[in-house]
Amino acid sequence: MKLSFAAIIVVLLTVFAAGGSLLAAELLLRPGDFVAVAGDSITEQRLYSMYIEDYLLMCQPVPGLRVSQFGWNGDSASWFAKRMVNNFLPFQPSVATTCFGMNDAVYGPLTPESAKQYCQSQKTIVERMKKAGVRAIVVGSPGCLEVETAFGGDHARAVMYNHTLAGLRDIARAVAQEEGVAFADVHDPMIKVMELAKARYSKDYRFTLDGGHPEPNGHLVMAHAFLEALGCSGDIGTITVDLAAASAEATGGHKVLSCAGGRVEIESARYPFCFCCDPAKLQAFRAALEFLPFNERLNRFNLVVRGITQKKMKVTWGFAASEFSSAQLEQGINLAAEFPDNPFCEPFRKVQEQVAAQQLAEVALVKEQLNSLGALREMAAKERDAIDRLTKVLVDRDRDYREAPAALVKPVRHMLKIEPLE
Predict the structure, then answer these.
(1) pLDDT per position as a tens digit, 324-344
(2) Of 13, 24, 248, 354, which cross-links 405 as Cys (Cβ 3.0–4.6 Å)?
(3) Four-way CATH pick for 5-229: 3.30.420.40, 3.40.50.1110, 3.40.50.150, 3.10.129.10
């Protein structure tokens, strides 16, 4: 069944409003925060965690804020509750997100025993984080399976396990409410966006590699859920141009350098989120935006034009141009949505590459080096001081990793050209 655009919008607004207000929550982030992104092998794919770090470094920059990922393949809430003492808490994060559940019910129906263990493990994680000084916590639900490919195409089993994951979602939400922390519903948006995309394109439109591990488009849905739970507002900035007065102004994070003849030169310290991806997967990655209100909710870089005397105008930004009615420009257009290929893409990509390198290095740091030291600490009680000193050295190394992407975020100069349509 092919869905109309209007029908898709109605469904999207219903799904993304289900967890609360359409407005973002209060921003949980403060200057100098260290955000730790914890989870299982889906987190260790280092995609949604990379998008979160990209966004917090470039789109909603908070002074001194840094991000690290702590994904571990095969992890569960119960295992993380045990290992976090050795290879998570030593980093002393001030903000943390968690995403567990895919492995917690061992790919079977949700039983009273597995539900109880998941609930208690989630509570233990939150309580230990609070005790260690983590100020803001986002408990994420598990995602979902893509039923066409999960379990080698065993449709019935995949549907069964999605019901299990929905039950774990409810438990995660209840724990977050009871503990007074934020909650990110990853499960429902992933299912709904997947359903809408398949209805529009075909059941062959893929969101996962193997039925469980998302492709970049699925990770974008996950990042959206966590960024909203962190309270990110989505206001990248607004450029207002008055053609009649030959003047322009910009909101915080952006500075107008010149304005003459419909040409506006701007210097921007805040980037719009750019949808960079493996070229082979870029089309599917960007196509997901039809069904995910990422640009509307998290990526609003607006251009408002006044003093227009013609019915239609051409806007050129970088190497791309597009036509708009005077009514559209007077109301305002979202540059990030209208110009996916724009002057920010290359600097954004360079920062993203450094983020990817950082998060890859953190896999070995957490899973091998610090985990080995944790085992030694238990075996050699008399050497704990030396082991603690070495742990600090390794934790400090991660600080160096985190600083590298942030150092690449530089203001971008770009030009907007607004002219009558010939």
Answers:
(1) 999 999 999 999 999 999 999
(2) 354
(3) 3.40.50.1110
